[in-house]
Amino acid sequence: MRYRSISQTFCVLMSVGLLWGCAADIEPTPGPDAGVSSSLIQVELDGEHTAVEVNASDYDNWVHLDMDTGAEVVPANPADDLVWDLRFQRYKIQSNGGVSGAASVVVGRVRTTDYDAIVEAPTIRYYEDAEDSDDEDQDVDNPFIGATNWYNYDGSDHTLSPADFVFIVRSSQGTYYKLQMTGYYSSLASTSGYPSFRYAPIAAPTGDPALIDQLVVDVSSGDQWVYIDAAERAVLSLDEPSSSQDWDLAIKQTQIKTNSGTSGSGLGGARLIQGTVWDDFAGVDSVGFTVDEQLPASEAAGTEPFSGHAELNTWYDVEDLSPREQVYALRTADGEYIKLQVLAYQDGSMTLRLDQLTRELSVHQQTLAGAGPDQWVHFDLDSGAVVELENPAENTVWDLAISQTRTRQIVRMRTNGGTSGSGEAGAFDPELTELAEVTRVPAGQGCYLPAQGHYCDCEFTEQRCAQQSGVWTEACGCPVAFVVDELLPAAPGSEPYSGNSVLASWFDYDVETHEVSPKDAAYIVRTATGSYAKIKITNSADDGLTFDWVYAGPGTTRF
After folding, report:
1. What is the largest CA-CA distance in the chain?
2. For residues 117-132, b (16+ Cβ closer than 10 Å) or e, as one string?
3. Beta-sheet strands, E only, within 173-267
């Protein structure tokens, strides 16, 4: 699923029938099954095609399907059973392989709506169920459920609808099937928890496995950008790409852009990974990515200034347009990570190599050289660099800033929000001492609205929640309230200053020795663009303030 912001992510997590289970105590009690006793409500056979509607409305039990027979099975021990292929519980779908079962069922995914056109299993990556990754849910990962889900969520009416995918399943018997989700609501009572789909057998793949991570794209047009979903290795047709979260990479002849900065509204970006070998490159830290900007015309003939990514547009040798042996880390529109390499470019055809990367967070250490009173040093957590700015109050490049007092013992701290800047920044004290203890941004309170469809609204105030007969609760999983900057009192004889009250308490002061020492405390900082970092101040001296920090990256609340 493509999320546009962290705040939307929190609301989405809860609005879809309180999906992620963090609010089980306020779930409505499941109603009757509309008079239907069988879990497979409809099984329609049309030649080789099977259409199924599953009563998966129970919040605790799974419904198991044998795709080879089209029948429900009730295994005594699902983990050891070799008959079932897929199982369903509400919106969740799991397969009988990997961490979920012993039958070696695998699933792949193709971004398309043309179900009928698939007659042979494509040469793509197929996956068994895996342990939950660092995405926002707590479910096992597979092509149905994970960083990208089988459904789209509509925040206006809090409903689910199938996304534009066809899934390929290799069953416990080794047969390949194509499967397309068709709905989530009961055909009899319109209640949720009734996933429906159609499936049919197809031929086994015959493609070359060596090409499994490659995508060949016609980029010959000098007028039209080609938009790509990097995770799915798919070319997209988009009506409004500037506002779309579906694309990650766009190419026009030799020019490349990402869904970020001046090119798009997504969380994208990229990094050139110097000196790396493709096969050895499996994970990347979230720090150091840059976003798109207006670039000058390239050295290729006939080009004009364009919006693109500076590092990605160094992929070729200017003399003959041959690809350089450069490997990039691409951040997708929804904050996932992909490795990217241009393998070939000839006659307007570009061959890309694309594969998944894991997010591998690193602990960084930074010393900000102290500035004098009324002078501030500004730091960007996204790039991990000090930034020089003419007008910091109107710039969202920086996230954190420090200034030393005249005695140089006390360091003032501010974030890019509130009275200090135009960004979304703020700080929160999780009341923990070690960075390793801070594993995610904690949940705050929100308004659960049982009379309005059993969903949570994270934008409501407690007063408005009461007016709407809602329940004000932490079980909604809404983001915790961060403290934004305000005018803070200074030492006698000094003017108040704009700073963050949470970070202002970073030190202990010994009244006898007049020494300042950092508290044994970790803090969470929200950046100017709404991402999150955790920091711990480790030293303060005349030459500046030293802190350890970890940046989560856009689109996630987990560290």
Report:
1. 88
2. ebeebbbbebbbbeee
3. 176-185, 192-202, 214-218, 226-229, 234-236, 249-252, 255-258
- Residue 290 in tokens: 């840059």
Q: Are residues 317 and 456 in the same domain?
A: no
Q: Which amino acid is at 143?
A: P
Whether the Cβ atoms of residue 210 and residue 125 lie closer than 8 Å to each other: no
Same domain, 44 and 141: yes
556 is a domain residue? no
Please give the mean pLDDT across all residues of the chain.
88
Domain encompassing residue 325: 213-359
d(C-alpha 176, C-alpha 187), whole Å = 28
**Backbone φ and ψ of 346, nearest 5°:** -155, 130
374-388 residue pLDDT tens? 789 999 999 999 999
Same-domain pairing of 50 and 192: yes
Domain termination site, one of 202, 228, 260: 202
pTM (2 d.p.)? 0.83
Which of 217, 214, 186 shows the shortest CA–CA distance to 278?
A: 214
Residues with Cβ < 8 Å from 532, sequence gap 6 or more? 6, 441, 524, 525, 526, 551, 552, 556, 557, 559
> Left, alpha or beta for 405 (phi > 0: left; psi -120 to 50: alpha)?
beta
Total domain count for the chain? Answer: 4
